[in-house]
Each structure stands twice: as C-alpha cells, then as structure tokens.
Amino acid sequence: MQKHVIRLNEADNVLIAAEQLMPGDRVEDVEVRGLVPAGHKLAARAIAAGSPVYRYGQAIGVASCDIQAGQHVHVHNLHMVDLHREYEFCRRKRDCPVDPGRDVFMGLRRPDGRVATRNYIGILTTVNCSATVARAVADHFRRDINPAALRDYPQVDGVVALTHATGCGMASQGEAIDTLRRTLAGYARHANFHSILLIGLGCETNQISGVMAAGELREGPQLHAYSIQDAGGTGKAVAQGVARIRDMLPAANAVRRELVSASHLVVGLQCGGSDGYSGITANPALGAAVDRLVRAGGTAILSETPEIYGAEHLLTQRAASREVGEKLVARIEWWKDYCVRNHAEMNNNPSAGNKAGGLTTILEKSLGAVAKAGTTNLNDVLCYAEPVRARGLVFMDSPGFDPVSATGQVASGANLICFTTGRGSAYGCMPAPSLKLSTNNACWERQGEDIDLNCGTIVTGQDTVEGLGEKIYRLILETASGTPSKSELHGYGQNEFAPWQMGATV
Fold it and tell me: For the whole model, what pTM was predicted?
C-alpha cells in the first residue's frame, strides 16, 4: 500500500513519514522495513556505516551502522558528529525592499515614540526574597479575585509581578549579575509596561541602586522602587506597594490605541517541543511571516544559540556584514567552551520529547529551527537581553530553554512572541502576548485550547507555507492590536519569567 512521505531535497537519503508506516508499506520505490512513526525518517536508499545522512540537503549526522533502504533512521543507527561548515560570510546577502507604510495595527504610542502591544503595570524584584511581597501586591489587583481594584481602569491590561529565583548568593560583579541587571532593566523600560514598581529586600547582592545604575534608570511617576526592610516589614511593604500602584493607575488608564505602522513590531521567535514536522510546516511558515514583517519595516529576534548549532552557516551566509557573521560565530564558540566547562555537549539537546517526535541530532533540530528566520539578511547579533537597535532580522544569544530564551527576547524589546510547537506547549510571556503555532494536526486536535493556529495542514496539502505565512502575519497584527492570545486567556506569563542564571551560586 502506497503511503504519504515527504522528500525535502533531492540530495536527501532519508524521507519523512507523513503518517505512521508499517512493515510492507510502499513509499516511492521503497518497501518499508519495520514500524516508522509519523514525523520520523526512513532511508530512501542504502546508507553505509560512517556515511553522512542528509535532510534538507544538509548532513544531520552519520550512520552508526549499515542502514538498508526502507529502515527507520533514528537514534539507534544515526549519531552526531561535529561536521565542518563553510561560513561563506555574506554570500547570500541580498537587498530587501522595506515599506514601513504598507501594514498597520492598533498600537499604544508611548510619549518617547515607542509603541506597545499591551498596557500593563509591572512589579519587578531585585531578589527572590522580595517575590512574596511582589506577588501579594499584584494579587490585590487581580480581576478574578478582586474585580473592584481595576473596575475603573479598563484600559489597563493588568498588574503583573515578575519574580525570579536569584539576586543573592552571587558575585557582586561579573557576567552573572550583569546579565540579571540587564534583563531587569530591559523589562523596566519595556513599552508594554506603562509603569514599574521595583521591590527589593534591602541587604541582597543585587541592590536596587545597582539595577538602576546599570540600566540608567531614574525614579519618577512611572518608576517607583523601595525595599521591604526600609518599609518596615512584609505587611507595610505590601501596603506601600498597593498604594503606589493605585497612584499609577489613572495615568496608565489614559492611554488609547491608535493606528500605527507595523514597523513598530518586534517579534521574538521561539520553538519548543519540536518534532519531525517543525522544519517542514510551522517553522518555515513563521519564516514566511517574518519576511513579510521585515518588508513592513519590523523586527524579528531569532535566539536559542544551541538550537542553531550546525546550521549557523545558513545565517552567516545571510549576514549583512562580515562583522555581524563573525559575532554569530563567536557566540557559537562561546557555547562550545561553556559546554566543555560544564561537562556537557551540544547534542544533549534535542530533548526526549524532540526525539519521540522524530528528531535525532542537534544538527537536524537546528536546520529546522533556523527556518523560523525566513530569508532576509541577518542585521545584528546581540548578547542576552541586550536592547535591539537594528531593524529586520537580528539574533540574540540565549540558551535553548524556552522560558529563559523568551525572557531575554522580551528584555531586548520584543513586544510579541511567536512560538512553534510539535509536541504541545502551554506558555505565556507577560507583558508580551505569545502566539502558539502547532506543527501537526495531532497536536492541534489534542491541545487546541492552547494553540492559536495549526500549521499541520501543510502536510495534508490544505495549505502552503506561503499561504500560512500570510495567515500568521495577519494573526500577529490582530494580536498586536489587542486580541488576546490563548495563553493570555489562560493567564500564562507571570510564572514563566526566567532570567538566565549564569555562574556559581555561593
């Protein structure tokens, strides 16, 4: 019986199962030898031990034993090798016409000219010790348990506390505290926050004064800061926070949405719970949406450095300059050293869920992950949580763990997140709305209450990559205009705040 498979490139020696294959099934001119789950690979022809295995026209590893045509190709017979890549800086660089007036959305213009997609009041903490007070202040303004608190402020999306697990037991100088302070400052400045309350304990390593100095922040009507110790204890600190938020509410409620250019959008690109379909459906469709955003003058942030490893040459070839390409390679080299220092390896990623979904090596995962970035030039490379300064496609260094990566993207200025998933994801990222895109129909049918758009219809032929790219782009504009995403409806976004913890805890 002839079954549906996908050949991604003529150079590939594997096919992708578009449905579960059974022994004896026929695909192209090959008889299937054994069970091959949907989304997994099978050999299109015999592959000798030690020979490269190709997907997307790129090597994703080598055969660890002889593989017969029709056999399942996965962790049992394919292993990772560190293959040489030709970076060919700027070889595929090309002009991309930009028209900032071509597309619009209903945004919130701030006095300094920045544009927001949401209108929150935020509570940040210098240290884990002030997390309980911050949560208590935010809980006072929850519409579900105290509706009267925000009844007169319908233009305020909410009061949210973003707490974390560090801020003390760390060096007072160096990479770890610099990264934390840069992250907190990025949130304090974020356009989606009308105003900010920063709460410390008082004796922590990460002092309020240090955060303010590092981020060049100043107290004023829209930024208040105090410590629990100076307030006189927990109860008094909570009461002070509630009073300060009440003072902020009238000004926050005075803002109104207006028609603005899509060039004000900064979209963070994420993939989590990836599977064998990610690089075929949702990721390239998101890439098509990114191309539209860039043509409209907007910005997209690709991240998750360990998840572009082995595919970084596809980005260096699109670098706007050799300097940009070299910055990306430098981040890859940093990660190689980081893994050695921590007795890890890049191929520790993919996760168990990724492998169950059909991905075998980090090389294979990375080649699918970079498809989110579309086809335009790579215009800049940033450190984690560093402010975005260039338009178009940029890269921000981060781990592959989605909450940590997305937290950095928002700190860099992302005012919306697009998140592809094959295994299923339940995630939000306040104050930026997060859109979920499923890679396959089964994920959509199983977890549709968390998914905003299904891209599995590409496999079944009901949609094309370009067609879904247009749908995703229109969904981005609609969500940026105020339509809540499913993660927002479920209340996700506060607990998922996760700054990158670097260095030793002492």
Answer: 0.96
